[in-house]
Every structure is written in C-alpha cells, then in structure tokens.
C-alpha cells in the first residue's frame, strides 16, 4: 500500500507562489463575481487546520480560485480532493496543482449551487449517521452571495441526510461575511440571534473558528470574514420536517422586536388566528411575550411540535402562507374583487 506513511508525509513540490500563478494565468479578480483571494499560506493553512485532521481524507473544496486553500488541503495529507470552480479561467492553474499531486486532484468546472454530489465519493467511505463523521470534508471560501444560499441548501440536506450527507455527518468548514458568521453561531438572547442561528444550530454543532480581516484578501472586500465549522448532530434538536421548522422559525422572526406571539399568529388564516395561536402557545408552553431572540431551541422544538400537531388535525394549515394571503388581498383590491374569486388562487381559508 502506498499508504498512510506516504500520505501523511506528502508535501507539494516547489511551485510558483499563488501571486505568481495569478500573474502567470492573468487571473485578475472579477469584482462583479465578488472574487477576493487569499495569498497568505499561513492563513490558508489555518483555515484548513480548523477542518480537523485531513490525513487520508476525501475533501470537496468549493470555489478554489487560484488555489491557496487547495495547496493547504493537499499539504495537510488529503488523499482525494475534488474542487468545484465556476470560473473557467482558474482551471489551468488548478491543473498545475493536479500535476504536482498526481492522482489526488479532480477538477470540476461547475456551479456548486447546482452540482450534484451523489456518487462522487466512494460508497465505502460512508458511515452510519449515528457513528463518527466520515473521513469526508467540505471546505471553501466562496463569495458571500453564494455561501449563504449554499448553507441553507446544505442544512436541508443535513435534515434529509442527502447530498454530501448521504455519506454520514460530513463536516463543513466555510467562510462567511463576519455578520453572517455571527448569526450562524449566535446564542439565545444575543443581538445577532436570527432565523439562521436556529436553522443551523438545531441541526449542527456550529463553531465560530476565527475572523479574517478584510485586508488579508486581494482585493480587499468591504467586510471582514468569519470561518465557521459545522458538524451535523446525531439527533437534530427538532424532529420535524425541515420545511415545517423553517416555516415556524421564519414566522416567529418576522417581527423580531415584537413579542413572539405576533409572528406565530401569522401561521394561521385571519379568521382563526387568535383561537389557533392560543391553542399552539398553550400546547407548546412557551411564554407569548418572549422576543424571538429570547427563544431557546428546545422552545422552538415545542412550537414546531405543537404546530405539526395542529397541521395533522387540519392539513390545510400547512400550506397557509400569510404573505401569500396578503398578496392576493392586494391583488383583489386592485382588481376590485375578493381574493377567493381570483382564478387559480390557492384555497387559503379553512
Ligand atoms: N478560494 C479562493 C481563495 O480563498 O483565494 C478563491 C476565493 S473567491 C472569494 C471565490 C471563488 O469561488 C472564486 O474562484 C469564484 O470563481 C468561485 N465561485 C463563485 N461562485 C461559485 C459557484 N457557484 N460554484 C463554484 N465556484 C464558485
């Protein structure tokens, strides 16, 4: 076996620096694509160390760009590195790296938001959900406009054990705009507590690793950057479908400065709002005058369970969306008709 001793001691041969690669392949950062590069290998090594041991690991790096983090992943002893990069200008530079680490790097020119990870890693690395995480990591420094929708998509994948989580509790080490990183990790009662805090923390252990000042990137972005590590929980703290949890959390946070009761009311059609909110709050045993930011995850669990219970009794509730009702009402007013008479309007009243 070429095996562990060799893997552990693997170092990339001398290569042009990332700065030189950028010059060599004329990789000017595209401002409209929010490209900001990390050239300092101490920093890229530090990000990669936060993923944990990569010795012999399978890794997917999202948005490798000129390859700074890619080099650190290879130097950390990864055995198999799949990089997914949307901008084809970076492919030749990544091929250079692939040649320097023969048999270790697979390059995909694609969009990580739509890329299907089913079957891209060997099945035999999968671990049962209840066991330790598999030796598979996702690492990346993506533009913020991509990392936020991506984490929401991946959290839904965690809930359903699909995509990268079909292999078990795959760990993620990703960068976000500092404010988003703070929301992801915010504890109960803190100013940054938001929908994202609940959705991430009910499914994962979420750690804020460190902050990278904007000046460390070339070109310098407007904001600082937070590195966040996620490990999916063996047992999610809320045992309801992701979409149902997302709906409850979204409604509660709709009026973040008001009592939580106000947002919860919006889960129900106007005619039955008070009655059903009363039933839900009683069953969940959550104080209606708490602010959304003060609600703990066990309390969100109680709210989601009580809402699921009500929906089981009256399935129409599940499809009710207050904003949709509002939209139809406005439309009805514009057309001088009532929402119920609009052609194709969903049945909203119960
Ligand atoms: N990781 C590199 C670094 O740290 O220097 C580059 C960081 S730059 C902020 C983001 C990279 O992600 C760029 O190379 C960009 O082309 C790539 N990217 C942007 N959107 C992407 C997407 N949807 N799928 C894959 N790559 C993407």
Mean pLDDT: 91
Q: Structural class from helices and strands?
A: alpha/beta
Cα-to-Cα separation, first versus last residue: 66 Å
Bound molecules: S-adenosylmethionine
Kindly report the oligomeric state of this protein.
Answer: single chain
What about the largest sheet? 7 strands, mixed
Spatial order of the strands in the main sheet?
A: 4-3-2-5-6-9-7
Under CATH, the homologous superfamily of the largest domain reads: Vaccinia Virus protein VP39
Q: Give the domain tally.
A: 2
Please provide the ordered H/E string of secondary-structure elements.
HHEHEHEHEEHEHHEEEHHHHHH
Give the overall silhouette.
Answer: elongated
Question: How would you describe what is shown here?
Answer:
- The chain is α/β, with parallel strands linked by helices and 350 residues long.
- 39% of the residues lie in helices and 14% in strands.
- The chain folds into two domains: 2-232, Rossmann fold, CATH 3.40.50; 242-330, Helicase, Ruva Protein, domain 3, CATH 1.10.8.100.
- It has helices spanning 3-8, 18-24, 41-49, 68-75, 91-100, 144-160, 178-185, 195-201, 242-252, 260-265, 273-284, 297-313, 316-319, 322-335, and strands at 37-38, 58-62, 80-85, 105-109, 136-140, 171-177, 204-212, 217-218, 225-232.
- The strands form two sheets. It has a seven-stranded mixed sheet, with helices on both faces. Strands 1-8 form a two-stranded antiparallel ribbon.
- β5 (136-140), α6 (144-160) and β6 form a beta-alpha-beta unit.
- The longest helix has 17 residues, at 144-160.
- It is elongated, with a radius of gyration of 23 Å.
- The model is unreliable at 337-350 (pLDDT under 50).
- It binds S-adenosylmethionine (SAM).
- The site of S-adenosylmethionine (SAM) has 24 residues, from β1, α4 and β3.
């Amino acid at each position: 076996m070429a095996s562990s001793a060799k893997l552990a001691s693997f170092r990339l041969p001398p290569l042009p620096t990332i700065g030189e690669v950028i010059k060599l392949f004329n990789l000017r950062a595209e401002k409209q694509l929010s490209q900001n590069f990390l050239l300092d290998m101490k920093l890229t090594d530090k990000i990669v160390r936060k993923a944990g041991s990569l010795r012999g690991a399978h890794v997917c790096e999202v948005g490798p760009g000129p390859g700074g983090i890619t080099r650190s992943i290879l130097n950390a002893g990864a055995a198999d590195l799949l990089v997914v990069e949307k901008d084809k200008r970076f492919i030749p530079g990544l091929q250079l790296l692939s040649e320097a680490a023969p048999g270790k790097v697979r390059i995909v020119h694609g969009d990580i938001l739509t890329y299907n990870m089913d079957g891209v890693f060997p099945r035999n690395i999968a671990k049962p959900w209840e066991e330790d995480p598999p030796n598979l990591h996702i690492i990346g420094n993506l533009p913020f406009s991509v990392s936020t929708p991506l984490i929401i998509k991946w959290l839904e994948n965690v809930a359903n054990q699909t995509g990268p989580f079909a292999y078990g509790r795959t760990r993620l080490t990703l960068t976000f705009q500092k404010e988003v990183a703070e929301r992801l990790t915010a504890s109960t009662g803190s100013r940054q507590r938001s929908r994202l805090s609940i959705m991430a923390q009910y499914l994962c252990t979420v750690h804020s690793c460190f902050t990278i000042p904007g000046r460390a990137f070339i070109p310098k972005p407007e904001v600082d950057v937070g590195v966040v590590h996620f490990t999916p929980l063996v047992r999610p703290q809320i045992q309801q479908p992701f979409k149902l949890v997302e709906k409850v959390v979204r409604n509660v946070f709709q009026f973040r400065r008001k009592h939580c009761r106000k947002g919860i009311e919006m889960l129900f059609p106007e005619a039955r709002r008070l009655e059903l909110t009363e039933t839900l709050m009683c069953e969940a045993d959550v104080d209606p005058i708490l602010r959304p930011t003060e609600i703990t995850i066990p309390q969100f669990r109680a709210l989601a369970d009580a809402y699921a219970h009500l929906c089981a009794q009256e399935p129409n509730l599940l499809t009710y969306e207050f904003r949709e009702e509002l939209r139809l009402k406005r439309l009805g007013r514009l057309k001088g008709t009532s929402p119920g008479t609009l052609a194709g309007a969903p049945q909203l009243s119960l």
